[in-house]
Give the backbone structure.
Amino acid sequence: MERSGDGGDAACGCGLWRGARLRGGAWFAVAGHPVSGVYRASARVFRPWKNGGGTTAEILCWPEGAGFDDFTLRLSTARVAASGPFSAFPGVDRVLTVIEGGAMVLHLEGRAQALAPLVPFAFAGDVACRAEVTGPLLDFNVMTRRPSLARVVAGPLDPAARFALLLAPVAGLARLDLVDLAAVGPGLRADLRGAPAVAVEI
């Protein structure tokens, strides 16, 4: 199963943001990347988990065509319908943000971590983890393979971020569209400043 901080701010790397950037600053210029820099929520295809506990939709994965064993960055969203264990991702750090719906509690190495809505929570993908949910919910999942790092922040959008999952319609874009802020024009970046979003900084 695929799943993931105080102050709406968390970072891949077991919760520690070390200020590093992903290697090769231009590596997101991949084949097939939308010219508009917008990944439409309406175009997402949700696929069921093997255990039947929910569905997931991949938004972006680098390098293009990478699988779960060799991606560097993966952004996805999931509709979680039932409690259950997470899949292990050795060498991967995760940040999980509950977007809407029921409550979620993560059980990690003997401790319970309640996830507040729109408060990103970072943890290591190597750690055994089980999620307990009170009802159906939607989450946003950011995964980076070490030594790459990403910081996830929920709140008014700073256009200096790399990606933004919009939390409200703005500038002709729909709620839950993902924007690659490095690929859109300065006018749209200006229009998105301060918009409610979950931002991914790399």
Observations:
- The chain is about 5% helix and 40% strand.
- The longest helix spans residues 186-192.
